[in-house]
Design goal:
This protein is an alpha/beta fold. Helix content is about 40%, strand content about 15%.
Length: about 500
């Protein structure tokens, strides 16, 4: 069994050492600060005792833990995982020293979330023995391990990292080195596009969060998440992406982050961020249940368009009691087609999907715009100054009768969630196309590492690539920003009618 060394006995290091001892490895835990070493070791013992009570580990697992106060004591280790503070020079010095004292064959792994593994590898005597092992917080509970290949990483170092990760009970995915590796890179649009929507005042932070929860099934929206992580932490991450990518427009930090940091509104830890936190930590009301579906009462409805969203809406409308009309007069017309249909029947309230264009660009001055995801519980609605109130009321009634919450937002292609999800899919397509990781690993990474309800590739399959591409091209056309250019792989897959998985 591998002798494991863990450097840094803080939040991550202690968690990783717990996993090592639980997996039956002799585990040497080092921290230069005596207090930190004591606290970290105590936390490992407590964690193992809890697991022993539940029968998950052997009673003797704690005896495998050896706290060591000198770095030199790590000399017998075959694998050392470094979880020291996030400073490149400190980590490079550690790798240089560990190379000397542990001998040529030691594999050195870093748990860094943002420092390129390639730059750490070049500080080791044998760069081919350096690899990234990115655990998620808290390591004992989060099921994922992201193994990162530096440009220099050799096959045997990668294999050992994967093998140890599996022995620790983790689902292992493999990523190439680069900004944010795979998981944090592919997860970035959730916050990044959320901030852009807030900046454009398409919706408030509370609305964007609610739309993500109810419309997309996310446990938390981007703003409550940023508050939880710390807005200063998120801003540093954004700056590091910007720097490492030499200014990639999709990854540009947002001025709102800079202002929040300047104002000292850092999120939960300061009691105030995008939300105000009460002493007991509460900050928002519980989400209500969606309205009960039904009440169509045989109303003649024209529901136009192809694709998963239109098909899903037709099914929901039929079960809610609407009479679906192919032609002829209807009391309500809903165009859920990804691209604007040719001619729409007149004389009835009109509700049109905002995907390929905003409502304003679409040229239906009396219509209500909408966006929803197949299977979602919330429909976003938007109106123009020329939209009549009877059309707004008809749209609210229609979606409520199909069991949707509704939320009024400002106009944009994809409205709120269509934009966030399209950018998540787009980032995944860029990452897959650039060889950062496989489509399956992207989905595993985002569901297990970031607790997304489904991965971006699965989203693209549920919504349809055509829909995703329509939103991106709509934004690209109306915003004229490189940020919204579609990934080559996405365009290619859509043109060939294939999945990003193929
Ligand atoms: N906290 C997270 O959510 C998270 C998630 C993934 C990765 N990471 C990464 O894990 C690493 C550790 O993060 P953390 O949250 O555990 O930090 P932490 O501050 O809780 O722990 C860092 C520990 O390193 C010790 N330390 C200080 N100088 C040292 C040195 N010269 N050599 C060895 N140890 C030293 C400190 O005493 C402290 O106990 C960072 O690189 C961080 O980016 C953190």
């Amino acid at each position: 069994m591998t002798v494991l060394g863990v450097v840094g006995a803080g939040t991550m290091g202690a968690g990783i050492a717990q996993l090592g001892a639980a997996a039956g490895m002799r585990t040497l835990l080092h921290d230069p600060m005596p207090d930190a070493l004591e606290r970290g070791s105590e936390s490992v013992r407590r964690g193992l005792a809890k697991w022993a009570e539940k029968g998950r580990v052997d009673e003797n697992a704690a005896s495998l833990l050896e706290p060591v106060s000198n770095l030199d004591d790590l000399s017998p280790c075959e694998l050392v995982i470094e979880a020291a503070p996030e400073r490149a020079e400190l980590k490079r010095d550690l790798f240089g020293a560990l190379s000397v004292l542990c001998g040529d064959d030691v594999v050195l792994a870093s748990n860094t979330s943002s420092i390129p593994i390639t730059s750490l590898a070049s500080a080791a005597a044998r760069p081919e023995n350096v690899v990234g092992m990115h655990f998620f917080n808290p390591p004992p509970l989060m099921p994922l391990l992201e193994v990162i290949r530096a440009d220099q990483t050799g096959g045997s170092a990668q294999a050992l990292a994967e093998e140890v990760g599996r022995a620790m009970g983790k689902e292992v995915i493999v990523a190439a080195d680069g900004p944010g590796f795979l998981v944090n890179r592919c997860g970035r649009p959730f916050n990044g596009e959320g901030l852009r929507l807030l900046q454009e005042r398409v919706a408030t932070a509370e609305q964007i969060d609610r739309i993500c929860r109810l419309g997309g099934g996310f446990r938390m929206g981007p703003f409550e998440l940023m508050d939880l992580v710390g807005i200063d932490v998120g801003f540093e991450v954004a700056k590091s992406f910007d720097e490492l990518s030499f200014g990639e427009p999709r990854w540009r930090p947002n001025p709102i982050q800079a202002r929040m940091v300047a104002a000292g509104r850092l999120g939960r830890k300061t009691g105030r961020g995008y939300y105000d936190y009460a002493d007991d930590g509460s900050y928002r009301a519980e989400d209500p249940e969606p309205p009960a579906a039904g009440g169509g009462g045989g109303t003649p409805l024209a529901l136009l368009g192809d694709g998963p969203l239109a098909d899903g809406l037709r099914e929901r409308a039929r079960s809610a009691g609407y009479e679906l009309r192919e032609g002829g007069p209807a009391e309500l017309v809903v165009d859920a087609g990804t691209s604007p249909g040719e001619s729409l029947p007149g004389g009835a309230p009109l509700i049109v999907l905002c995907a390929a264009t905003s409502l304003a660009a679409r040229g239906e001055s009396g219509a209500v715009g909408f966006h929803a995801l197949p299977g979602g519980q919330l429909a976003e609605l938007t109106r123009l100054p020329t939209t009549q109130s009877f059309a707004c009321e008809a749209a609210e009634r229609f979606f409520a009768s199909l069991g949707f919450h509704t939320e009024w937002v400002e106009d944009a292609p994809g409205l709120v969630l269509g934009r966030i999800i399209s950018q998540l899919v787009n980032e995944a397509a860029f990452a897959i196309g650039e060889g950062v990781g496989s489509a399956d690993d992207v989905d595993t990474g985002l569901t297990l590492g970031l607790s997304h309800p489904r991965g971006p590739v699965a989203w693209s399959e549920a919504i349809g690539l055509e829909h995703v591409l329509a939103v991106l091209d709509g934004l690209s056309e109306e915003r004229r920003e490189e940020r919204y250019r579609a990934a080559p792989l996405l365009r290619r897959a859509a043109a060939l009618g294939r999945s990003l998985r193929d």
